[in-house]
Amino acid sequence: MLLKYSKALGLVVFVFLFAMCNQKSKNEAAKETILKGSLDIAVDETVKQIVDDQVAVFEGTYYDAKINVKSKSEAEVINDLLNQKTKVAIITRDLTDEEKARFEKNKINPRATPFAHDAIAFISNKNNNDTLIALKSVIDFMQGKSDSKIKGLVFDNPNSSTVRYMKNLAKVTEVPKSGVFSFKTNNEVIKFVSENDGMIGVIGVNWLYQPTPDMIETIKKINVLSVKGLNDNQYYNPTQDDLALGKYPLARDLFIINGQGYAGLGMGFASFIAGDIGQRIVLKSGLLPYKTPGRKLKIRNEIIKDKE
């Protein structure tokens, strides 16, 4: 009899706690709409600058919205997203099938919205007169080949999207034990390369187009290298033109991943950055918009002469 009573009491407590949690979730959703509320976004550190721009304009347009940007390495951002420590993230790739399956277990269908074409850039010290680099040379170095012409590579973070990108490109699971330097941020990479001859820095191009005020003078001490792809004899730059033509070999896309599971601020922000205003912000930043912003033309039936 006592056992039955305990089981019944346990069931009541479970139902009560579940109802309270469910009610809390509903209350949180009620306080938030697509244009109102507060939201934390985990952002890949290599693209923080463009996200800060988007947030500034979004909050300036919708005064009841507050978005807190938390920049981290790609591995940390993905980990927070999968463990539901953050519901919205901005990364430099789409989710994998395995990552999507993790969301499905929680009955959430994450929405991935591409909003910009980005690129990884190679940089060198100004004292290096050679501003050309073959991608094959970098891959050879990543594969540990002794005949590589690269003296050393400098990355931002062992868990960053740039390291993951280059490892995938070179088809290696680990970076070489010697000749590779890693810091924590893209700014630290730029500073190190500006002070050390012969080093090749690997960074997100967004930090070159939108340097922080304290880095403007440092940027002047480096070269952005033109890159020759694996199957091309021409060298291309991480510019809007070469990205638009599909010529630059280290291009990548930016995605906002929304795992909120309801029509909240994440959906509103995703719509904003993928919309006309957001795409114009991308264009102005030096990156390439995923969709070309529209341009309205006013056609006149007759020519109006200026008054003399």
UniProtKB/TrEMBL annotation:
<keyword id="KW-0732">Signal</keyword>
<dbReference type="InterPro" id="IPR024370">
    <property type="entry name" value="PBP_domain"/>
</dbReference>
<dbReference type="InterPro" id="IPR050811">
    <property type="entry name" value="Phosphate_ABC_transporter"/>
</dbReference>
<feature type="signal peptide">
    <location>
        <begin position="1"/>
        <end position="21"/>
    </location>
</feature>
<protein>
    <submittedName>
        <fullName>Phosphate ABC transporter substrate-binding protein, PhoT family</fullName>
    </submittedName>
</protein>
<feature type="domain" description="PBP">
    <location>
        <begin position="36"/>
        <end position="275"/>
    </location>
</feature>
<dbReference type="Pfam" id="PF12849">
    <property type="entry name" value="PBP_like_2"/>
</dbReference>
